[in-house]
């Protein structure tokens, strides 16, 4: 499919949702879908794309009809025999959080609910601030950096690795594992990438199983120890397949999404210098700015649901066995909820009506932590860097091709170092 200059006269059928072009810049397509076919059967597939805020919220409430137990429908899709062979001998992750429905979902959810509660996350403030400062120290004298490698990726990576109890020396491998798991989830990988991903998944499992084994014998004060020694059902311990599944979800969900929000947030502020100025002058806007970034950037672009029975929804019949893609990124620009929805406005009164963290049963248990990392991270960056700009000639601002997650590949910026006297603690005032 080629881009045409007369975008506005295009109809829905002119767009191929699965193409890299549309995934790269999907917003005209989302707008048309919301208007013309809010429950849209993607041509040539059994996937119904849902794009309106109210419809997604209604579906999220009906977990019996729109089930999260979809993993078996996607697993191994499009993988060659050679790649499947590479997965032989690995642990098939059990369905735990993201891919289970109530009541079974509650068994696992209750294990992780309190890990990143508002109170626990508030106690992590100084610890997060210290990591943020160390990362900024690492590049501030250079006057430029690739923001994702220097900041947006290591911040959540370090935090989640520390919480899980993974050695920081392993962070580079940890990043490869996280990227590989995220790419597999996104379902748009070449055969070559699929092989690398399979090898990374093997390596990840071997390492984590070793840690689980060690923590079972000698628990420490970390999340893997808590999970490895937890009891469920009638007092049994979690199996390797359950533990791998939970750790994997925390790794991908906790990393890639927060990285993309930080990078997308930085780009939004650079593109809207008046908003960046407003934020510097009024750090109290930071918490709302973070909600607006999540609304506009929505790294969790879409999540799957499996349809368990024939159901009529808004006049469209969705048959049992079909897949639904809840397009959170489209709902967050729904004009029915957000005035002038395509405008980035850090003072938007209802920015936090976004559903970037989902809603209901599967509402993101890491939401408080992600918000904290963004508030402290972006706050400190504005406090310590001035004149932040896109580095000339170095950016194509493209995103990873991924059906589920949306994130920039790289973001080169230049900046001046702010004199230390200007340190009004922006994030402290905001959080
Ligand atoms: C900006 C950052 C983040 C965004 C946008 C985000 C988004 C989401 C969304 C939309 C869901 C619900 C999925 C569904 O509807 O099926 C979810 C679930 C989840 N998130 Fe996050 N997330 C973020 C950060 C985090 C962090 C930091 C962690 C962990 C430390 C985390 C862990 C999880 C887990 C474990 C689930 C599964 C929960 C369940 O199924 O009960 N997320 N997240």
Task: Give an overview in words.
By secondary structure, the chain is α+β, with helices and mostly antiparallel strands. It has a domain of 200 residues: Cytochrome P450 (Cytochrome p450, Orthogonal Bundle), CATH 1.10.630.10. 49% of the residues lie in helices and 10% in strands. The chain is built from 19 helices and 12 strands. A 5-stranded mixed beta sheet has the order 1-2-10-7-3. A 3-stranded antiparallel beta sheet has the order 4-12-11. A two-stranded antiparallel ribbon has the order 5-6. α8 packs across α10. 41% of the residues are buried. The site of protoporphyrin IX containing FE (HEM) has 26 residues, from α14 and α18. Protoporphyrin IX containing FE binds next to α14 and α18. Belongs to the cytochrome P450 family.
Quick rundown:
The strands form 4 sheets. Strands 1-2-10-7-3 form a 5-stranded mixed β-sheet. A 3-stranded antiparallel β-sheet has the order 4-12-11.
Keywords:
431 residues; alpha+beta; Cytochrome p450; 5-stranded mixed beta sheet; 3-stranded antiparallel beta sheet; disordered N terminus; binds protoporphyrin IX containing FE
Q: Strand order within the widest sheet?
A: 1-2-10-7-3
Which blocks of ≥5 consecutive residues have pLDDT under 50?
A: 1-6
**Beta-strand percentage?**
5-15%
Task: Measure the end-to-end span.
Answer: 45 Å
Structural class: alpha+beta
Question: In CATH terms, what is the architecture of the domain at 68-137 and 148-260 and 356-372?
Answer: Orthogonal Bundle
The helix content is 40-55%
The H-level CATH homologous superfamily of the domain at 68-137 and 148-260 and 356-372, spelled out, is Cytochrome P450
- Text of the CATH class of the domain at 68-137 and 148-260 and 356-372: Mainly Alpha
Distinct ligands, ions and cofactors found in the model: protoporphyrin IX containing FE
Pfam families: p450
Family: Belongs to the cytochrome P450 family.
Keywords: Heme, Iron, Metal-binding, Monooxygenase, Oxidoreductase
Protein name: Cytochrome P450
